[in-house]
Design goal:
Layout: E1 2-7, H1 12-23, E2 29-32, H2 43-55, E3 61-66, H3 70-76, E4 84-86, H4 90-98, E5 104-108, H5 114-126, H6 133-143
Parallel strand pairs: 1-2, 1-3, 3-5, 4-5
Helix pairs in contact: 1-5, 2-3, 4-5
The protein binds D-ribose.
D-ribose (RB5) is lined by residues 8, 10, 43, 66-68, 70-71.
């Protein structure tokens, strides 16, 4: 599974920890899109870069991190066919895959501890979409108009 990963400065420490976790998994090929270090950057830029690459087929799924996970998930969900799920626990991570077919996992670098994040990450990577009745609901999301 090819995973695209990006954060802003508020998420860069947790992003570094995620790089280490995913290095332990033989089934993950990781593409780190930045940011590097803790210089102040704008989270919409990193959300947009990752989502464009994901939609272009450059990865199978994406992971985004900002301070709370809120801003970067709002930005990512502006893109059609991106279903970005901000998760704080393993139950949410499992549901985001089984019911929502979330193709982007979002974490908060200032809200979620490293060990909790590792559990969320593994659950999210290892859980498949249930399909069935959930497929039609996802299709309805794409048809929502202003
Ligand atoms: C950056 O200071 C912070 O606003 C950002 O990481 C994120 O929490 C926004 O939602």
């Amino acid at each position: 599974m090819r995973i695209l990963l990006a954060s802003d400065h508020g998420g860069s420490d947790l992003k570094s920890a995620l790089v280490a976790f995913m290095g332990e998994r033989d089934d993950v090929e990781l593409v780190d899109l930045g940011c590097d270090g803790t210089c102040s950057v704008d989270y919409p830029d990193f959300a947009a870069q990752l989502c464009r690459k994901l939609l272009a087929g450059e990865g199978d799924r994406g992971i985004l991190v900002c301070g709370t996970g809120i801003g970067i998930s709002i930005a990512a969900n502006r893109f059609s066919n991106i279903r970005a799920a901000l998760c704080h626990d393993e139950f949410g991570a499992r549901m985001s895959r089984q019911h929502n077919d979330a193709n982007v996992l979002v974490l908060g670098g200032r809200t979620t501890g490293i060990e909790v994040a590792q559990g969320i990450l593994n659950m999210w990577l290892d859980t498949e979409f249930d399909g069935g009745r959930h497929q039609g609901r996802i299709e309805k999301i794409e048809k929502i108009a202003d």
